[in-house]
Amino acid sequence: MGSRIAAIIQKELLQIRRDRRTLAIVLVLPVMQLLLLGYAINTVVDHLPTVVYDEARDPDSRALIAAFQNSTYFDIVGSALTRNEAVAAIDGGRAKVALLIPPRFGDDVLGGRVGQVQVLVDGSDPNVAQTALMAAGMVSQAQSASINASTIERLGRRSGAGGVEMRPVVLYNPSMLSANFMIPGIIGMIMQFQTLILTAFAVVRERERGTLEQLIVTPIRPWELMLGKLLPYTGIAFIGATVALAAGWVLFGVEVAGSLPLLAALSVLFLIGSLGLGLLISTVSQTQGQAMQLAIFILLPTVLLSGFVFPRETMPWIVQQLGQVIPLTWYLQILRGIILKGVGFDVLWTSALPLAILSVTVFTLSAMRFQKRVG
């Protein structure tokens, strides 16, 4: 009995060794999961990019800005010359928080009165917004205690209920509902999943059944075959995304604040890249099993590093740079920008341009490889 089992084991090991592509994926995937979940994913939200609109420009306002910077929750990434410029920085995704300090802030603090400042928070991600509000409150309390201690030392007595008062304003998602954050991301994932998986399977299935060779010997040209394969799944992905968008509106009240035609036009850019990835998988896979494993290999970092669930601001710098070569990273910024913020192309072009470059590059390389295989 032992020899029979040993023979079966030997046979299985030989089959595993012959299928080196699957073996490589099986061995690499756990390591990649460990690295992504252990190193890249950090649930602690800090180092939020922050812009400052300082109208006071005095020692007290500078001390408040330094307190924000030293808290480690906020990274001062720039100054704004107007309130609208500060809001535009949040609209465009360059900042998550804006600190607005009024002109009489220093006079109020020196006079023993409460110095009021406004904190604008990007509410499109509720976790980021809650952390920003909590951290701003902590900075306010610490700064108030410091100002009161300084007043007592300077005047020899307490001069009243002075200090700093933060007045927070949550933009785009005032109620901080998680559905407002997740639904745009789910729409992006639906389009990514359907185009990538279905496109890869459609070609590999033909190869497994031997019908791809039959198509190749017909008068059909390679680009006609490719286009005929891709267009149905493009339509399916658009229908799936439209149903999800309608369900989000009916069931969760998530309305599209911006332009639907702009959303559809920029979605085409994203689909080009997803279809290209599907084609690429189809050219390197011999079976549907291999195609599925490769799809998981691509989808895992896409889900974790694109900002679909975890804020990219909390990831290490090198991981953030890796996330910039993932098309879904830019598409999520476009989806949340149009659906939640209602911004237009004048703001979104900074996301649309890299998305277009990535998508066209991936699709072109994949199409060339596909046509070479069937040509």
How would you explain this protein's 3D organization?
The chain has 375 residues and is of the alpha/beta class. The protein has helices at 2-18, 20-40, 59-70, 83-91, 105-110, 126-155, 178-209, 211-216, 222-252, 260-284, 288-305, 317-323, 327-341, 345-374, and strands at 48-54, 74-79, 97-101, 114-122, 163-171. The two termini are 51 Å apart. The mean pLDDT is 83. It contains 14 helices and 5 strands. The chain has a 5-stranded mixed sheet with strand order 2-1-3-4-5, sandwiched between helices. 69% of the residues lie in helices and 10% in strands. Helix 7 runs parallel beside helix 10. The chain is elongated and about 90 Å long. 39% of the residues are buried.
The succession of helices and strands, N to C, reads HHEHEHEHEHEHHHHHHHH
Helix share bin: 55-70%
- First-last Cα distance: 51 Å
Helix count equals 14
Query: Which structural class do you get from the secondary structure elements?
Result: alpha/beta
Per DSSP E runs of 2 or more residues, the count of β-strands stands at 5
Mean pLDDT: 83
Which sequence of strands runs across the widest sheet?
Answer: 2-1-3-4-5
Q: How large is the radius of gyration?
A: 27 Å
